[in-house]
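User: I'm designing a mutation panel for C6 finger domain protein, putative and want to avoid disrupting the core. Could you give me a predicted structure to guide residue selection? Please restate the sequence first so the numbering is unambiguous.

Assistant: Good idea. Sequence first, for numbering, then the predicted structure tokens:
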Amino acid sequence: MAYTLQRLEQDIELFRSPSAKLINTLAEECKYSLRRRRLRGKQTIPSCWLDDDSDSDYRPEHDTIDSRRKRASRTKESNRPKKQSRSSEQLIVIMAFSSTIGRAFLAALPMTEEDIPPEHTEQLMQYWNIADSTEESSNSRYSLRKRERQQEGHEQLVDLDEAAAKGCWACRKIHQECSLLEAQFAYPCQKCKDDCIDCELIIPPEWKRACERCKRSGKTCSYSHGETDHIVSCEQCQATETPCIAGPAKGKPPLEPRTKKEKSESCAVPGDSKSIWDTIPPLTAEDEPDDPVTLTPALKNGNIRIIHTSLAHPVNFAYEPPPDGTNPCHWCSNFVYGIMGLGRRAVEVIDFGDGRYVEMNGGHVKDGHEPSRMCVTCALERIHVVNCTRHYIIPLKGYKVDTFDFDAAYNSLIPSPGQLPKQISPWCSLCPNPAFFGCCTLQLVNKYQEPVKQPTSPHARGCGLLLCERCELLMRAYRGNLAKVVAKNDQANAEFGSRADVVYVLPGNDLYRFYTKE
């Protein structure tokens, strides 16, 4: 359509018309109001011009009245039950059994070894059986996630049956899968190798390769020879009292005898060219034994090895004391003999494989001590512990840790002048500490291997194993494995961690092989 002249005039008039001016009081023209909010807290305003009430008085508290409903006060006529306050946690647990069967079972549980009724043997076994794991109920209102307890060193208890226990401590602390789980002999693990730290295994291997300290110092480690006891630290680390960390070996080291140079090298202290046996003071002529050890053809049939012992060898396991009381059994006459012995030493002996040893160097016989004598009764008591199928541990009657006099017990180990020590309390069968627990397993035979005819007989309960508080805890952690408990004690304290005769209650010991001819 064409743009006409009339249309053009209208447009010009429209654009030339005056525009509206902005006013200064814009707030009055476009008012925007917000909802009123109540001020939190009371405020004192020294004026009354903000009073919006219709009355003539001024009440500043009028706008600050709380609109929430007040809590109703409890009166005597109120029927609503009072809310119980949450009680604090206590060590005493009250078990409310409503049924007659539950109360009867609770009453049947023994408190000590003398309160065991024979008719509840199966219930007792199930009660003292240690569960594999402790699980919290998922329905618990206050169930929290489990936290790992922070402890110093390696004192935390580890389930040795789990796969992670075959690794090292460093990987376990940082919750990382150890490379030793896939390659057992690829020692050290990759994590410890990258961080340049010692790779300490959780489960000590049966046979060890040369320890890390000996390899760094260029010394010949005693682990390289099968004659050395691989349960304890190597001779070099024992001489310097340093931790011995070694990896697993694929097999038992060879039994070739070491040369004189290797022996002095492995047993010498850094900075000292003398052997460890040179520190023993020389003997006088009257203290020399009458019959020195000579390598007869019969002795040459044994293997030369080094053992760590506190007894004088060869030990007579079938000693018969004379009727006149002279030269009695060392264990019967002095209870401290089995606990402390004559002092722990590394002794070079000839092992005949049947429990008999003949001292070659460094033993107690050379110092004038008589070979250890053990009567048949003491020997059978230890064999009875080894033959026990499974140890069920209960507290000993009359002995509690809280009220026990430890000072008097340890002072009893030191005899008075001219007298023998007097035993005033039971002692642990594994370590030199007082015992508070004992085995209560039902026995089919007594310590003399005679059948038990009456289940109520005193010989029917327990194998004679006694445990202190620490060993009882380790027994539960290692599920009744005595060898692992002893190894843990030796790892914590190589000199005084175990009894002198603790080896005679372990499976396959020299005493057991002597009587069974295995």
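For picking mutation sites, this is relevant: Residues 126-153, 259-298 have pLDDT under 50 and may be disordered. Residues 297-516 form one domain.
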